[in-house]
Amino acid sequence: MRNVAVLLTFTRQDLIDRYSGSVLGGAWSLLMPLVNILIFTLVFSEIMGARLSMAGMQQSEYNYSLYLVSAMLAWNCFSATVTRTTTIFQDKAGIIAKVSISLRTLPLYLLLSESTIYVISMVFFLGFIVLIDFPLSWSLLALPVVFVIQQVIAYGLGLIFATFSVFLRDIRELVDIVFKVWFWLTPIVYVADIIPDHWAGVLAYNPVTPFVDAYRDMVLLHQLPSLQFLVVTTTVAGVTLALALFITQRLQQDIRDFI
């Protein structure tokens, strides 16, 4: 119970500290992603909107906005969780020395913080969907399941990177670069069928692509994720988490000594 109270306190403080002193406060957590989404929409809506119509989606001025936001909100949460967790042990070195909390548990507050922002963003997104009279379906009830699987993977990856970044500081910069490239290798902004054939294989081996497709299937096509997708991704999440917990546990004392 003590660890739970500490994590909730850290989560609350993280949400408060992000924009403390600013006039709009926590509203920036929503405004910054919205600005990025608006830019992509203005730049790509005409081209990608036509592609979506060719792919069988009903012609609508909001097609591309729905296509983009349904994937980008999840990507923003995933990438922020991993990249922020990567530096958690250096960022909280002082707290680690003072508070009796497991190093495997500490990054959970970042997971909770980023997930909270995602949930708030999704509420606004669903409100927008209702506002434009786009149909909702029961398939959305599966969205939390997919999101939890995604975040377990994000937590596992972040914890692995955080452990090794204590001993090799270049990892934090490497992770940042990888995620910038990874974003453009994932069909978030663009439609997958515009990719040349010799690059199509990259998308096939991109582990985030099935998640992006699953979110869009639930929101836009009103389809549930396939059983195969759920089994494979749950297995990957379990293996990633188990590996992360094992590595951090084995190196926990070394981490405390090194920082």
Give the SSE layout:
Blueprint: H1 2-17, H2 28-54, H3 63-86, H4 88-91, H5 93-98, H6 108-131, H7 143-165, H8 170-184, H9 197-204, H10 209-219, H11 227-258
Give a concise summary.
73% of the residues lie in helices and 0% in strands.
Provide structural commentary:
By secondary structure, this protein is mainly alpha-helical. It has one domain (2-258). Helix content is 73%, strand content 0%. The protein has eleven helices and no strands. It has helices at residues 2-17, 28-54, 63-86, 88-91, 93-98, 108-131, 143-165, 170-184, 197-204, 209-219, 227-258. Helix 1 (2-17) packs across helix 6 (108-131) and helix 7 runs antiparallel to helix 8 (170-184). The radius of gyration is 19 Å and the shape is globular. The chain starts with a helix and ends with a helix. The model has no long low-confidence stretch (mean pLDDT 83).
